[in-house]
Amino acid sequence: MAAAVETFPNQFPNREYEIEITCPEFTAVCPKTGQPDFGTIVITYVPAATCLELKSLKLYLFAFRDRGIFYEHTINTILDDLTGSCQPLRMKIVGLFNPRGGMTSRITATFEASGS
């Protein structure tokens, strides 16, 4: 199976450093109401051998636009797909979803490679 997002070699694999990527225009569809859900996705990770390629990541995230999916499933799916693509030492995905019915949601999912 192909990786969800393309990667490129980490130029500093012997140094731990953190990468934070923010997508402030995330959109998906509520599977219950059919209405659009808007939010900000923040991806924070410590790369191992590879880093996420940004154009590929953008296209991956934009593919959710027409997908009926709950917030919780969205964030956990993104975490699973991205850790599968770049196999980081650590990764955290935060979804900050815009108000709907007077309430906002913040969903956080984390990953830590065994032995790190």
Features:
alpha+beta; 4-stranded antiparallel sheet; 116 residues; 42% strand; 2 helices; 22% helix; 6 strands
What is the element layout, followed by pairings?
Blueprint: E1 7-9, E2 19-29, E3 36-46, E4 50-52, H1 54-62, H2 71-86, E5 90-100, E6 103-112
Antiparallel strand pairs: 1-4, 2-3, 3-5, 5-6
Write structural notes for this entry.
- By secondary structure, the chain is of the alpha+beta class.
- A hairpin with a 2-residue loop joins strand 5 (90-100) and strand 6.
- It is built from 2 helices and 6 strands; from the N terminus they run ββββααββ.
- The chain has helices spanning 54-62, 71-86; strands at residues 7-9, 19-29, 36-46, 50-52, 90-100, 103-112.
What's the short version?
The chain is of the alpha+beta class and 116 residues long. The protein has two helices and six strands, in the order E-E-E-E-H-H-E-E.
Mean pLDDT: 95
The number of helices is 2
Tell me the series of helices and strands, N- to C-terminal: EEEEHHEE
Question: Low-confidence stretches at least 5 residues in length (pLDDT < 50)?
Answer: none
Shape: elongated
Largest sheet: 4 strands, antiparallel
What level of helicity do the residues show? 10-25%
Q: What's the oligomerization state?
A: single chain
Strand order within the widest sheet? 2-3-5-6
Radius of gyration: 15 Å
Separation of the first and last Cα atoms: 26 Å
The overall strand count is: 6
Strand content: 35-45%
Return the structural class. Answer: alpha+beta
